[in-house]
Design goal:
2 helices; 26% strand; elongated
């Protein structure tokens, strides 16, 4: 029987192969963990999105279902191809670009619409209050939430598994060729920031978003609302 052991070269080759396999495995495992985490956040945001859409659709007529002051004339309608567009001259002719009604980040002014100043946590998961940093100049199309209306039955800021999710929404009347405001479209976006910011100063967060250190992720939907049907 040949009892010859490994030579030094064979041992080095074996260790090299093991190292290559290990690096590949850990790289794969890291990718899987990151992908799983991203999918979990997307699923959580989608659940919050659907919950808020459902709550808004069930609300009776109130300020949360109306455009804020200055946006009362906003109307949308469907063109001949069935595409939802903004109204101009009484007809749906202007495209709704880049989620413009609810985009929380203004890339020109480098402003973020809503930030909780790191107030949400596991013991205080819903933290919308006057201490929240809200800059409605970041997107004048966003109607809600704002600090003049009570969103307590909607809970637009929620901390879930160490990630803070924010909901913003805008309201438009439907259709273009009517003065009625019974039928409405509600544009809703839920967003979060990656990685989760630790700063209480929104200006620091805005700078990091602008530089690419932080990234805004979001999911959106459009819900129908007919006043008088809850």
């Amino acid at each position: 029987m040949n009892k010859k052991g490994f030579t030094l070269i064979e041992l080095m080759i074996s260790l090299t192969i093991l190292l290559i396999v290990s690096v590949g495995f850990f790289s794969w495992a890291s990718t899987v963990i990151k992908t799983t985490s991203n999918m979990e956040k997307i699923n959580t945001a989608n659940s919050m999105l659907l919950d808020i859409a459902d709550r808004l659709q069930r609300l009776p007529e109130n300020d949360l279902l109306k455009p804020k002051t200055g946006n009362e004339n906003r109307r949308v309608g469907y063109d001949n191809s069935g595409t939802l567009k903004k109204c101009s001259g009484g007809s749906p002719s202007q495209s709704i670009l880049n989620n413009e009604f609810t985009n929380p980040w203004n890339n020109t002014s480098k402003k973020l619409y809503l930030y909780d100043k790191n107030a949400c946590n596991s013991t205080n998961p819903y933290c919308f209050s006057s201490s929240v940093a809200l800059n409605d100049t970041a997107n004048t199309n966003i109607d809600h939430p704002n600090l003049t209306t009570d969103p307590s039955n909607i809970l637009p800021i929620r901390s879930i598994k160490n990630t803070t999710y924010y909901a913003v929404w805008s309201v438009a009347y439907l259709p273009c060729s009517s003065s009625s405001d019974d039928k409405r479209k509600i544009f809703i976006t839920v967003y979060w920031i990656e990685p989760e910011p630790t700063e209480t100063d929104i200006s620091v967060v805005q700078s990091k978003i602008a530089s690419g250190t932080y990234t805004i992720k979001s999911v959106s939907t459009v819900a129908d609302k007919v006043i008088g049907i809850e």
